[in-house]
Amino acid sequence: MAELRTQRHQHRETRDGKPFHPDAPHGTRGGYSNYGCRCLECRAANTLAMRMYRRRDGPQSPAT
Ligand SMILES: [Zn+2]
C-alpha cells in the first residue's frame, strides 16, 4: 500500500533535525521503513536488521 505509506510519512514531525513519526512502532524496522521515522531507536533497529541481513547474505551489498 504505497498510498498508506505516503499518508504516514505526511504525519511525520521533525525532531533534532530528523524525521520523527509519533505513531511509529519505535525501535522496530517497520518504524523506520514503513513510517519513515528516523529517531535513534528506529535507526538503530534498521541498522541492526541491515547488519544481520548482510551477515546472512555475505559481504556483497544487496544493491539491486
Ligand atoms: Zn522512531
Topology:
Blueprint: H1 2-10, E1 13-15, E2 18-20, H2 29-33, H3 40-57
Antiparallel strand pairs: 1-2
The protein binds zinc ion.
Residues 24, 26, 31, 37, 39, 41-42 line the site of zinc ion.
Structural description of this entry:
The chain is built from 3 helices and 2 strands; from the N terminus they run H-E-E-H-H. By secondary structure, the protein is mainly alpha-helical. It has one domain (2-57). Strands 1-2 form a two-stranded antiparallel ribbon. The longest helix has 18 residues, at 40-57. It is globular. The mean pLDDT is 87. It binds zinc ion. Zinc ion binds next to helix 3. Zinc ion (ZN) binds at residues 24, 26, 31, 37, 39, 41-42.
